[in-house]
Design brief:
Elements (H helix, E strand, L loop, with lengths): L2 H15 L2 E8 L3 H11 L4 H9 L4 H22 L8 E19 L5 E17 L3
Antiparallel strand pairs: 1-3, 2-3
């Protein structure tokens, strides 16, 4: 490995140490429906985001995102050693990407078959404090 690559790799490692994130793979909700909920909480303070998720109309995905957000908050508390209530934490980045999909066949009239595609998604959530 060259010197420039080594230096950039060390910078990336240092940035990951101060990065607080959580990942949720293979959620049984399509990415398009998950983005509706994710767009509501992007950029919010974490405790406000938890209350928005609690009273959201899309219960299936909002419960999973709420669980992920609580996990990321606990990761932040373990890495920093301070309580989440002491500092203002914000949802800095949240992304929903489409994941694998299950393909099934449903019987149709006249001996034919229609395809059913059950889509999955993956969610990545980052939190941090605002730089002032």
């Amino acid at each position: 490995m060259g010197i420039r690559k080594r230096i950039s790799a060390e910078k990336i490692k240092e940035n990951r140490k101060i990065c607080y994130f959580g990942k949720l793979n293979n959620v049984s909700v399509p990415a398009r429906k998950a983005r509706l909920v994710v767009d509501m909480i992007r950029g919010m303070e974490v405790f406000k985001a938890l209350s928005v998720l609690k009273f959201s109309g899309k219960k299936q995905i909002s419960l999973k995102i709420e669980k992920l957000l609580r996990s990321v908050i606990s990761n932040w508390e373990q890495k920093t050693g301070s309580q989440a209530g002491d500092e203002k934490l914000f949802v800095t980045t949240i992304a929903v990407n489409s994941s694998s999909s299950l393909k099934r066949m449903r019987p149709a009239p006249r001996g034919r078959a229609n395809r059913i595609c059950k889509r999955f998604s993956s969610i990545v959530l980052y939190i941090g404090t605002k730089k002032m």
